[in-house]
Queue: 2 jobs
Job 1
Amino acid sequence: MDGCVLVTGGAGFIGSRVVAGLRAAGSRVAVLDDASAGRPLPARTEGLEVIAGDIRDADLTGRVVAALRPAAIVHLAALHHIPSCTKDPRRALDINVVGTQSVLDAAAAAGVARVVIASSGAVYDWGVGALSEESPTSPHDIYALSKLTNEHQLALWARQPGRWARVARLFNVIGPGDPNGHLIPEVLDRLAGAADTARAADPIVLRLGHLDHRRDYIALEDAAEGLIALLGDGDPAPFSIDNLCSGRELGVEDLVTRLADLLGLRITCLSDPALRRPNDRPSQLGAPERAWRRLGWRVRRPVDSALAEIAAADGRFALVS
């Protein structure tokens, strides 16, 4: 893309891969991130500007966007972890909703006409079967509420002439280096703690929440490529929403068992009622056909490949060959 691309949350789990992909494609990139997720800011290099800052600081965000005058903004900065959002809903809404408005206001003031934001498959109402972009939305938790609100904020912003806005409804992204307390990082920590003390003859017992709940998992690299493809969407329509998902589901127990196998560990999963989230939907399967058709993008890495990359990147285990 001609001109600079500003990536908010560009030091984060997904953002860092988007930045790497954009740079590999020859784009100049700027990162705005407060490093609150626990990942370090990248080093400044030729073609990469890095600004430490919080998107909730409207004055700072406005100055950054005005100085950069980016050709486009990819807005990824957010509080992602659902239990963290539930525990502190004011903070979640402050970051995800107020912070997003700061970014959109800054874009409007600086004349930036092209914005992509990351939403979530969590915005859909609970149901059976694949969720398409036309499926009903109904948030069941604070995180989903904040993401659906972001979509409406962007749609309102895009009503002004000359603006172009895209929403990526990301499903469950997995990959190495996830700093959030999601399922896989939590399981890795618990396996690492148990592997040294467990007897070789006995399986490690993992107590989890719902074992049969299913999710549509997408590899980190595929998610980043999908966001970049969305940024390059040639459709002139001012506003559009696309699922970024695989169209396949996997249960919690199956996912965790596959990861343990890659680590050379025998496990037994038990469902602990105390660990079951009260608002945990039993299924979240996405329909990817719209993105396939419009963007020429589709998931290229199966779940097992993503799990192998996660296992290889974690230095606490001796992997099986």
Job 2
Amino acid sequence: ECDVFNPLSVLDLLSELPAPVGVFSNSDHLQTVTALAAAYLNLPGKDWQTCYRAKNKAAMRQYLKALDDGACWFRAVNDQRSLGKVIDDVPFPCIAKPREGVASLNVRRLDNAAQLQSFCDQFWQEQPGQPLLLEEFLSGPVHTLETIGGGKSLIALGGFEVRLSEPPHFIELAAAWVPYQPDSPHLQEMFRQVRRFGVGLGSCHSEFVITDNGPRLIEINYRTVGDGREFLLDRMTDHGLFHAILQAHVGNPLELSPPTQAAQIRYLSASTSGRVRRSAP
């Protein structure tokens, strides 16, 4: 056993084991540690700086600002004092979300300062000191881009058109698969943005808002898409997506083609709170 969030602890443990042929994790939280371990062991791995920027949403926004590529207003806050310093500058509506959060958990659209203050109060009561990222609200439909890299090559598989619940929450209700086409203006631009960000080896799931000015990056999750869509992609991909990901992480060439089928996935969500007593026949 070891502290998997500490790369030194991971390396100490690996030094006691037979030499690995690859180092891999699909966890949001472990991409940076995994990349550092792979680099130390001279094994195929993701760039650890890109992994860190992808997981830390404030670092991602700062990097996009430095690149002057789709930057938007943002601030990171971790208590009432830091919130008080920026609250007069917040463009409403805004989005508040954990700086290193996962999916739509604790992600909220807020329309005024009172709502923002109330949300932050409740969040910090439950998670004291945890940083929140405030950023401008980007209006438009959500579209993902799914990529896989084999070292020097990066393949765009396509993306999902995502249907969300009404604000202030962002609950995914359905997703329709859109195969990658070279003449697709949105997917081409998304592909350009993730490549410039530094995405390469392995699987990556990126989310965009299609605004009036084109795709704007919401976040990069440097791992495979979740919520059941990863199994859908695995079934649609020749030789299997999971097999290709593991092959990339042990240095073998990619053997897959982007899926061309049509597909849709729907999620069942409760309209009210309650307890499940039995399943449908």
